[in-house]
């Protein structure tokens, strides 16, 4: 047993490198974590069987999509699976009508550099709700969820309609169910946790309620909460100088999120890109950086 | 009886952890001296995490989980910073540590003095230091 500990200098990998993992090893030891790359190297039908587990059945049947064939009521496919051999990334998207460029569900998982798994993207939009063009600027260029460019007019409309930064439509209110599926899928692969980088303050708040803790940024979230209190530095920046910096934004998750999206963190000499969250499979962390906060 | 709290990895959290342990001990009926040992051990371990585990990072979370069973309390402290690894043991010098609280390496010595069992594991789900305090009957 150890008597002393020191900080490990070399980064630690959670699992063997994918290319070293043979199918024999997967069969022989069920505790070895399996990578996305390993699954992507399987034949098409085999990986389709596995990735099917990521989509809640109720989400498909709600839109009359067959959960096995992924065909809609018109007999056309409604689900895209992107999982190329040799790649460590899987992307699944579902759309409701003929417009496959406007999916209502998108999930993207990717092997990370420590052989763990990152949830890169999760979109859950109600296809029947009004759409706001926050994802394209006025010249038609992609805004990348408002992180690279902004469509201020569309954002203001989205905000007034009750959306959070990064959303184009109201949500489907199915994230809890999707996370349960992700955890079941990762348990199938023998992973113990997964990671993500929250797009917005509102996302981080939701992920806290889904049981995530912080690898980076818990202290920043505490500081944000503190500084949004009356007389705090962020509170004082709610000076009505833009539609996103109105004073009553201090006391709601979405209000804070829009103000942060508008760059208000400059006053703290930081930006919204320093956070990373972790979900331990089967364990709710109970982090709460906005106690009794309302969405 | 189980209880858990998750806080930011900063020194201010240590006081919150002490209050949390006090409340837990009160509810579980843990004696004052054992409760004091638990607070000391959690203080030392958490200080190491704050000052070394999250060094150079925008600090993440520390999760403190306590479990009371008849005759023992199990404490688990989880973080997501740099993992620790076993190092060559150094002879403890408590006087030096008291004079120089910034000098590392002796927190674990105090934990060994007050706890009955210690385990450490590091992996995909974070770094978890677990120690067990057996309670006098």
Describe the structure in brief:
The complex is a heterodimer of chains A (295) and B (137). With 295 residues, chain A is an alpha+beta fold. In chain A, 27% of the residues lie in helices and 14% in strands.
Mind describing the biggest β-sheet of chain A? 4 strands, antiparallel
Uncertain runs of chain A with pLDDT below 50, 5 residues or more? none
Strand order of the largest sheet of chain B: 1-2-3-6-5
Number of helices of chain B: 4
Number of strand segments of chain B: 6
Question: What level of helicity do the residues of chain B show?
Answer: 25-40%
Give the overall form of chain A.
Answer: globular
How many β-strands of chain A, per DSSP? 8
Q: What structural category characterises the helix and strand content of chain B?
A: alpha+beta
Sketch the topology of chain B as an H/E string, one letter per element: EHHEEEHHEE
Overall radius of gyration of chain A: 21 Å
Task: Give a short account of the largest sheet of chain B.
Answer: 5 strands, antiparallel
Give the ordered list of helices and strands of chain A.
EHHHHEEEEHHEHEHHHE
């Amino acid at each position: 047993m150890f008597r002393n500990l020191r900080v490990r200098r070399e980064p630690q990998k959670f699992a063997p490198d994918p290319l070293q993992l043979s199918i024999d090893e997967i069969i022989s030891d069920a505790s070895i974590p399996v990578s996305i790359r390993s699954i992507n190297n399987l034949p098409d039908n085999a990986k389709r069987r596995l990735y099917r587990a990521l989509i809640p059945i109720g989400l498909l049947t709600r839109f009359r999509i067959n959960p096995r064939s992924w065909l809609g009521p018109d007999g056309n496919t409604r689900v895209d699976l992107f999982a190329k051999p040799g790649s460590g990334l899987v992307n699944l998207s579902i759309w409701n009508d003929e417009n496959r460029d406007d999916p209502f569900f998108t999930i993207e998982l990717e092997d990370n550099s420590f052989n763990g798994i990152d949830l890169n993207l999760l979109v859950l939009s109600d296809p029947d709700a009004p759409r706001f063009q926050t994802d394209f600027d006025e010249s038609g260029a992609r805004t990348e969820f408002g992180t690279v460019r902004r469509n201020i007019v569309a954002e203001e409309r989205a905000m007034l309609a009750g959306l959070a930064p990064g959303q184009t439509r109201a949500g489907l209110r199915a994230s809890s169910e999707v996370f349960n599926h992700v955890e079941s899928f990762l348990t199938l692969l023998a992973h113990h946790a997964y990671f993500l980088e929250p797009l917005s303050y509102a996302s981080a708040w939701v992920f806290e309620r889904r049981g995530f803790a912080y690898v980076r940024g818990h202290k920043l979230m505490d500081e944000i909460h503190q500084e949004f209190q009356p007389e705090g530095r962020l509170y004082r920046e709610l000076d009505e100088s833009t539609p996103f910096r109105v004073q009553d934004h201090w006391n709601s998750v979405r209000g804070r999120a829009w103000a942060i999206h508008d760059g208000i963190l400059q006053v703290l000499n930081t930006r919204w890109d320093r956070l990373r969250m972790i979900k331990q499979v089967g364990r709710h962390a109970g982090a709460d950086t906005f106690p009794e906060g309302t969405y | 009886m189980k209880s858990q709290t998750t806080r930011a990895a900063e020194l201010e959290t240590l006081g919150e952890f002490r209050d949390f342990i006090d409340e837990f001990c009160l509810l579980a009926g843990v004696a004052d001296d054992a409760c004091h040992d638990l607070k000391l051990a959690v203080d030392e371990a958490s200080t190491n995490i704050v000052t070394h585990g999250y060094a150079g990072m925008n600090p993440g979370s520390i999760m403190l989980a306590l479990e009371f069973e008849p005759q023992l309390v199990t404490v688990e402290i989880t973080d997501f910073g740099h993992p620790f690894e076993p190092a060559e043991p150094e002879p403890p010098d408590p006087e030096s540590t008291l004079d120089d609280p910034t000098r590392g390496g002796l927190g674990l010595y105090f934990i060994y003095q007050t706890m009955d069992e210690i385990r450490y594991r590091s992996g995909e789900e974070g770094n978890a230091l677990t120690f067990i305090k057996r309670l006098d009957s």
